[in-house]
Design brief:
9-stranded antiparallel β-sheet; two-stranded antiparallel sheet; 9 helices; alpha+beta; 2 domains; Jelly Rolls
Amino acid sequence: MALRRTYSYTQSCDMTIADELDVETGESAVSGELDAVLSPFDPELFFAEYWNKKALYIKGHPGKFAGLFDREGFLRASHKCADLKVGYTDENGWPAHFNIRPDQIPEMLGKGKTVCASVVDLDEPALTTFLKEYKKSFRVAGKFSFNSYLSPDRAGFGLHLDHHPVSILQLEGQKRWWYSSEPGLKQVISNVSFPVDRDVLKLPWVTVERPAEASLCEVVLSPGDVLYLPKGCWHRAQAIEYSLGLTLAMESVSLLDLIQTALLPKLNTVAFRDALPGYPNSSLGAEMPVELEELFASSLEQLRLLIESFSPSELYAIWNQVEAQVQNTRLRAETRSATNLRSVVSTQTS
């Protein structure tokens, strides 16, 4: 009988064997059951101390994800995935990508580039079964999907962070990861990539500094290993000879999405949809037309009353409706976002 080990983790990224329990280990995790995916780590401890808070590296065993997905599956999925692309750094040092055809995969690998296939779980029974079971342990108003990364030696995406949590499942080969133990940004509205020649990046909503290299955790993922990164955690990766991995992306709607969902049906009236009047150019001076001023004032008053009529419990009810809808609906590639509400968020993960 093999022994199941429990591990303790610290913010400094050290991992030590705390003790050994006489429990069988080496079980397969291809079913998607959370206990098996996180094994030998305690799921209750995961939710209490790591979920949405800190990164977590879990050492696995080579057979943990055997049969879930492989290189043959990657090539098969490349013909029907939502997006097939190659990442690179442009002449100005900015991360960029371009789309390729499935028949170009060998050429791109030969040139030392990582090939990313987005939403590979479409029409892949093992992956769809995994996601269906895995999501049972979470209440997230959003979509869970798999992206897959096929990398030759030393290939991988540069330093960036994602706007949603991810869990990396290493399937074949090895990949070295550098990552922040906690989110570098607490509020993230899109993925953020650092160009190679910048130490400070000004975003529309915040200015961020490049994390010090010494502050990043470093680990080599081997088949069966898992790396969980909350949204906003900086990370980069580089394959060692060859690597195939799955990134489980856990996307979620935003507060703005919920408010829009709540308001739009009530604003879908003749008064709000009626086309606004136009005016001769010569008739308009610096003053707003009285007709428009009265119309805008009355409409804003209606909007204020409508917003004041909502309560937190009503928004929570809508959150539950969205969560149930996504849980019970098979979303196709064209509905890439969680609820069709999010349309401007990029999907690059590593």
